[in-house]
TrEMBL record:
Residues 543-566 are annotated as: Disordered. It comes from Heliobacterium mobile (Heliobacillus mobilis). This is Magnesium-protoporphyrin IX monomethyl ester anaerobic oxidative cyclase. The lineage of its organism: Bacteria, Bacillati, Bacillota, Clostridia, Eubacteriales. One of its GO terms (cellular component) is cytosol. The gene is bchE. Coiled coil: none annotated. Residues 9-143 form the B12-binding domain.
Length: 566
């Protein structure tokens, strides 16, 4: 069987600023398929190569794949739909498959908008895609698909979703094939070296209300540190990777395993630097270990500091305090690493004053880098539900952290964008002239100057934060946010859509409760005394269900919200 995987060609200025990043799903999904015997696999990174649809169509016509796979995060969804339409038109006999976070929750809307998509894979893809491929290869998919867990498809014009596939139990069973990627293309500009995005852990035991990552992976799992570092060794030695960031939501919560992973990196003397995203609370808990992390090559830590007021932190259910944020930044910097702070901007209570307050706070915290991300209401997050009819913009292509989606009560979206861009300009202007060139540690200085170079390059080409949409007209500045007007809905329309188009709604209960209200993946003897299914990830009290039982804790201290055995 000929299998073609495609990363859709979507761009928006933001995280791409630091270079071209490899789409890891292709290595994880492609590697699993190869291990299952599907060896005729090709991957096209239409995003990195900026491939237009007609070129893609030509490639598909020439290669005549039997199956075309694509991935989608929320802002990429329309481009992913287009990509699979191009595939179907170019080779009507091929089966088209879409996976990733957005389709996992929004399969109903997607299938009604893009009926040329044959299958949607919901959730973690490795095990599901093999099961699906087996029935496609056998030519029995139409008959057998109802038995493949974790997929959705159209049958007689109706959306069918099979019960969710359980999360992968043993992440060490993963067999990513990194050779599927063309490594020359993936360069991290700050260090001018190849970059990779491997997965050490999946999931997050916290439940922030604006986030959906914890819902997507469902349980927190972490890999065997030795086996993970084997993979890093392959990336460094075979593919000449010099920098990696962990794809993980929270790699540090299981301190024992994170420490073991660092020790393994030190012992093997791999000349590689790396970065992580993690929680402020873990940094504070592990402050004494920061020099050791630095020794293991960890140089860049991005923190979900999120808000400039405690009120918003609490609203997000972030379970951190303002004071903790500042302390974590100080500690990271004191240990020679780069501290990056992330803020969420543009909620309905944003004002000119709060934008300024956030800027002043960023200056006071004095993180090495700051990102002001626009609040993006993933339609499968809790905060989206709370905001309800206040989310009028349903043009998902703009759900990209750089476009104000919410209309604040006391200012225009355009002014939020201008205010945030002003914060960027002021913050980095100061850093460029008064901070980065004077950093004493030569390695960190070089790194920060490299980041600045990447930032300036993207700004000059007007790609950073998509600033091409901000235009000077005489003394004033005009902004065109470029929303698709047909995807802006009034409060009245939102109310009406709830009854007329229930398919637009996310499957908020993915992996837990089925459409009829019965738990999706429980048998009757798997129901707890209170009637709730035992395998829901989150218990009524908000604690993750996947905390290890006492007996399983002996050799595996999986996430316990900071209460680690050490
Ligand atoms: C690395 C990364 C990037 C890289 C992109 C690398 C690339 N070329 O894809 C960079 C830095 C460029 C980037 C940019 C952006 N990113 Co980003 N990124 C990540 C990050 C940290 C890791 C992604 C990853 O590799 N995961 C590991 C792989 C294995 O997981 P996965 O992709 O989900 O794939 C699994 C399943 O989803 C499924 N699957 C996925 N695709 C497919 C396809 C098929 C056919 C099948 C069967 C299965 C399947 O199976 C896979 C294995 O289980 C995540 C956060 C996170 N922790 O996941 C954010 C994340 C994906 N990014 C996000 C966003 C919003 C963006 C930006 C819009 C931000 C910005 N303005 O810069 C841009 C968009 C760029 C673009 N053009 O699309 C959001 C998406 C949220 C959402 N609901 O859509 C995330 C989740 C961060 C967050 N906090 O919410 N990002
Ligand atoms: S800690 Fe991070 S990954 Fe976890 S739920 Fe909160 S925002 Fe999401």
């Amino acid at each position: 069987m000929r299998i073609l995987m495609i990363q859709p060609n979507y761009h928006c200025g933001g995280a791409e600023i630091a270079g071209n990043w490899p789409p890891s799903w292709a290595a994880y999904i492609g590697g699993t398929l190869k291990a299952a015997g599907y060896t005729n696999i090709k991957f096209i990174d239409a995003m990195t190569e900026d491939l237009p649809d007609d070129v893609l169509a030509e490639i598909i016509r020439k290669n005549q794949p039997d199956v075309v796979l694509a991935s989608a995060i929320t802002p990429m969804i329309y481009k992913a739909q287009d990509t699979l339409r191009v595939a179907k038109e170019s080779n009507p006999n091929c089966k088209t498959v879409l996976g990733g976070i957005h389709p996992t929750f929004m399969y109903s809307q997607i299938l009604s908008e893009a009926p040329w998509i044959d299958y949607i894979v919901r959730g973690e893809g490795e095990e599901i895609v093999v099961n699906l491929m087996n029935v496609i290869a056998a030519g029995t998919d139409i008959k057998d698909r109802k038995d493949v867990l974790g997929i959705a498809y159209l049958e007689d014009g109706k959306v069918v979703a099979t019960p969710a596939h359980p999360p992968i139990k043993d992440l060490d069973s993963l067999t990513p094939d990194w050779s599927i990627l063309d490594w020359d293309k993936y360069i991290y500009i700050p260090l001018n070296t190849r970059v990779a995005v491997p997965n050490f852990a999946r999931g997050c035991p916290f439940t922030c209300r604006f986030c959906s990552q914890w819902k997507f992976w469902r349980t927190y799992r972490v890999r065997n540190p030795k086996k993970f570092v084997d993979e890093i060794e392959t990336l460094v030695k075979d593919h000449k990777v010099g920098f990696f960031i962990l794809a993980d939501e929270e790699p540090t919560i299981n301190r024992d395993k994170f420490v073991a992973m660092c020790q393994e990196l030190i012992d093997r003397k791999l000349d590689v630097h790396w970065g992580i995203n993690t929680r402020v609370t873990d940094i504070l808990r592990d402050a004494h270990l920061l020099p050791f992390y630095r020794k293991a090559g960890l140089v860049h830590i991005s923190l979900g500091t999120e808000a400039a007021t405690q009120m918003n932190l609490d609203r997000f259910r972030k379970e951190t305090t303002m004071e903790e944020n500042k302390r974590a930044i100080d500690m990271i910097k004191a240990n020679g690493m780069v501290a990056e702070a992330q803020f969420i901007m543009g909620l309905e209570n944003e004002t000119v004053e709060t934008i300024e307050e956030t800027f002043q706070l960023a200056r006071y915290w004095d993180a090495d880098m700051v990102n002001w991300n626009m609040y993006t209401p993933w339609p499968f997050s809790e905060l989206f539900e709370e905001l309800g009819d206040k989310v009028e913009v349903r043009d998902y292509s703009k759900y990209n952290f750089v476009t104000p989606i919410m209309q604040p009560d006391h200012m225009d979206r355009e002014d939020v964008l201008k205010g945030v861009l002003r914060s960027y300009a002021r913050f980095y202007m100061r850093k460029s002239f008064l901070d980065y060139p004077f950093i004493k540690d030569p390695w960190k200085r070089k790194y920060m100057m490299g980041c600045l170079k990447a930032f300036l390059k993207m700004t000059a080409s007007k790609r950073f934060y998509d600033i091409g949409r901000v235009k000077r007209k005489g003394l004033s500045t005009e902004v065109d946010l470029g929303f698709d007007e047909s995807k802006i809905v009034s409060k009245e329309e939102i109310a009406k859509l709830k009854t007329t188009r229930p398919d637009l709604k996310a499957d908020m209960d993915f992996g837990t409760i089925s459409a009829c209200g019965a738990p999706k993946q429980v048998s009757l003897n798997n129901v707890s005394a209170c009637g709730a299914p035992k395998d829901l990830e989150i218990s009524a009290c908000g604690a993750p269900r996947d905390l290890p039982s006492l007996d399983s804790q002996q050799d595996d201290n999986t996430a316990t919200r900071g209460m680690m055995k050490i």
